[in-house]
Request: fold
Amino acid sequence: AQTVTQSQPEMSVQEAETVTLSCTYDTSENNYYLFWYKQPPSRQMILVIRQEAYKQQNATENRFSVNFQKAAKSFSLKISDSQLGDTAMYFCAFVGGNNNDMRFGAGTRLTVKP
Amino acid sequence: DVKVTQSSRYLVKRTGEKVFLECVQDMDHENMFWYRQDPGLGLRLIYFSYDVKMKEKGDIPEGYSVSREKKERFSLILESASTNQTSMYLCASSLGGLLKAFFGQGTRLTVV
Reply:
C-alpha cells in the first residue's frame, strides 16, 4: 500500500513570511494524484492544492504552491505571505491511479504568529 | 455544493456496544471513505467503497465493518466497541482521480 510521510509534526511562521511543509510518499505507480488539505479548528477539511503526477509543472493557487519532485517522491507545500487564517493542520494526500483509495500523512500543525 | 453529512457530531458509547456511524452524500459520488483521525497519526483509512455493495479494507480495518447498500450512504460499524476505538471519525466522498474529496464534519466518538 502507498504510504505518505509528513516529518514535521509542528511548524510556526511569522505573519507575512514564507513557510514550506514537507511531504514524501512511496508508490510503485507511475500515474497518481497528490493533494494538500487544510483542517482548521472547525474540523472541516479544505482542499488547498492538487497535482497530477504526469504534469511536470508545479501547481500554484494564489499564495500556495508546490514543489513536486517525482523522482524523489517529494511533494512540498510553500505558503507565501502567511496569514493568521492559515493556522491549521495541513495534510498531504495521495490518490492512486486506480482512482479509488486515498491516503493521508500524519499532518503538520502550522501556527502563524502575529 | 456537495454535502457530506455524518449522523452525529459527538457520540458516547459503552464498551461492548454495537455502534453505527452513518454518512450520507448528495452528489452521486462513486467513492466513499471512512477514516479515523488521531493526534500524531493523521487520517488513517479504515475502509473505502468504490461502488454500491463494494468495499475494500484500508490500513486499519480490524474491529470495524462497513455497509453500502445505496450509493449515497456508507455506514461504519463497530461490532463491539472498545476504548481504543475512541477517536475522531471522518467520512469522505469523491469522484476519484484529481477531483477533490468532500468531507463530513466528523464524529468524535468516546467509548467508556
Q: What stands out?
A: The CA atoms of residues 21 and 77 of chain A lie 5 Å apart. The mean pLDDT of chain A is 93.
